[in-house]
Amino acid sequence: MNATLPERDFAQKWHLKALFAIILVAIIIAGSVQKVGIETEFSWDQFFQIWKEMAHPDWSYFPVIVQPILETVQMALVGTLFGTLLAIPFSLMASTNIMKNKFVLSVVRFFLNIVRAVPDMLLAAVFVAIVGIGPMAGVGALTVFSFGMISKLFYEAVETIDEGPVEALTAAGANSVQTIIFAVIPQVTNQFLSYFLYTLEINVRASTVLGYLGAGGVGLYLDQTLSMFLYDRTAIVILGILAVVVVVDGISNHLREALA
Amino acid sequence: MQKVNRTLWQRIKPWFITLVVVLIYLWAFSGIDMSSIKETAGEVTMAILNGLFHPDWDFVYIGDGEDLINALVETLAIAFLGTFISAFLTIPFAFLAAHTKRGFSAHATIGKFLLTVIRVFPEIVLALMFIKAVGPGAYAGVLAVSVHSIGMLGKLFGESIEDIDRGPNEAIVAAGGSAVDSWTLATIPAVLPAFMNYTLYRFEIAVRSASILGIVGAGGIGAPLIFALQTRNWSRVGIILLGIIVMVTVIDYLSGQIRKRLV
């Protein structure tokens, strides 16, 4: 019986890798608990008090937030458009099959990685400092944020195209601009549009909270109602955000299915 | 040569779509007041760029717990604990939302709606609620991350439960196993790699959100950043941004390597 069992060496037999991973995770957890300091009492009274007040939304506040919610959508639309326009040249420069110069390729990719590493709210904080309070700060933050995200999605799409048309055009004597317009762009248009809509969904979600830092949109009302402890109004703002996100996601999903 | 007959709608459809898109964008641009940019915008941009290239290196390590390293470690601790707790909290939600049988399923519909609500509920508001309950600090951040992550993890976990091969479950039931046997011996082993993969992915996102929670006082690197921005201490802003970029890049790389091995 024993002879039919597969041979396992010491490490496999005692699951050393898994054991090591579990011990490592346990150590990190212990360290994190130490760092965060979870000895404070959780005050359920305070916590449920907010929920109780939010359970009775102040519907008279609804008309006040309609305009800011629309502004949120406008910011997302404009930011996504600017981000996409910026991303197109950069994504072409970051595709291995278009950009043959290894040095430029790695510089562009490094730059895109850095842009993608900055969280959207931090961009908003920086843009509020630069252009001042208002929707322009939100548009700036969303432009940079969607630029980073779309560039990566786009260059991955460009790298998966069929090389046949590119070679045919090059063989027929087309220059690189003509090759991109007639061989690359037609192959990726649908994917580009689909990624544009996907980014728009994420931007609508992001833009609802950007206003918390003064970057325009409905987030400002989140800040105001919360700092005045008017949780019945906060509930309305959250319901409004929920509604706009669900509607935009629904439309965008429908369009993306039609594109696929 | 025969002409292809197209209906009126087919002929005008591209123009109609273009018109709708143009109208949507005219509306969008009308809402953004481009003239509201401060005159100092160029100056401030240069100052921030200057700060990025001349960062305040002294801030990296001071030793009294108010430095960059300390704040970054706290941010990572918030993200790690939050994601870890969330992975466990998510499991019941995921099984509730998983649509594993043919036809309408009430629990899956309810579960999916619940997860959408959690996903959309702003993390900052959650953080403020938990600050009410436990006071300002990293603990509130951990709780906010662990509740907010349920929304996305529940969706991803639920989808991987839907995708597994049902064969082993049926085999165990056919051999006389109970529902618990089928669960522990067939379902869990099949979904575990996907669960771990998604948890790591969510950890990458949690690192980003933990670095902003400090804005409302829920611990991490956000608080010193906002303070530096408000006091116009650009070299401080520079070093904090650099610190965040390095932290996020390293975590993304490590997590990506581990995830490659899991699949």
TrEMBL record, chain A:
Entry GO terms, CC: plasma membrane
Entry keyword set: Cell membrane, Membrane, Transmembrane, Transmembrane helix, Transport
GO MF annotation: an example: ABC-type phosphonate transporter activity
Pfam families: BPD_transp_1 (PF00528)
Superkingdom, natural source: Bacteria
Ranges that cross the membrane: 18-38, 76-99, 120-145, 202-222, 234-252
Family of this protein: Belongs to the binding-protein-dependent transport system permease family.
The protein's name: ABC-type phosphate phosphonate transport system, permease component
Listed PANTHER family: ABC TRANSPORT SYSTEM PERMEASE PROTEIN P69, PHOSPHONATES TRANSPORT SYSTEM PERMEASE PROTEIN
InterPro entries noted in UniProt: MetI-like, MetI-like_sf, PhnE/PtxC
Chief location of this protein within or outside the cell: membrane
Membrane topology: Multi-pass membrane protein
UniProt xrefs under CDD domains: TM_PBP2
UniProt subcellular location: Cell membrane
Domain ABC transmembrane type-1 positions: 69-252
Species the sequence originates in: Weissella minor
Automatic annotation (TrEMBL), chain B:
InterPro entries: MetI-like (IPR000515), MetI-like_sf (IPR035906), PhnE/PtxC (IPR005769)
Subcellular location: Cell envelope; Cell membrane; Membrane
TM helices/strands, residue ranges: 12-30, 76-98, 110-131, 205-228, 234-254
Signal peptide segment: none
Residue intervals of the ABC transmembrane type-1 domain: 72-255
Keyword list, A-Z: Membrane, Transmembrane, Transmembrane helix, Transport
One CC-aspect GO term: cell envelope
Pfam families: BPD_transp_1
Membrane topology: Multi-pass membrane protein
A GO term for molecular function: ABC-type phosphonate transporter activity
PANTHER family to which the protein is assigned, alphabetical: ABC TRANSPORTER, PERMEASE PROTEIN CC0363, PUTATIVE-RELATED, PHOSPHONATES TRANSPORT SYSTEM PERMEASE PROTEIN
Entry's family note: Belongs to the binding-protein-dependent transport system permease family.
The protein's name in its UniProt record: ABC superfamily ATP binding cassette transporter, membrane protein
Species of origin: Weissella minor
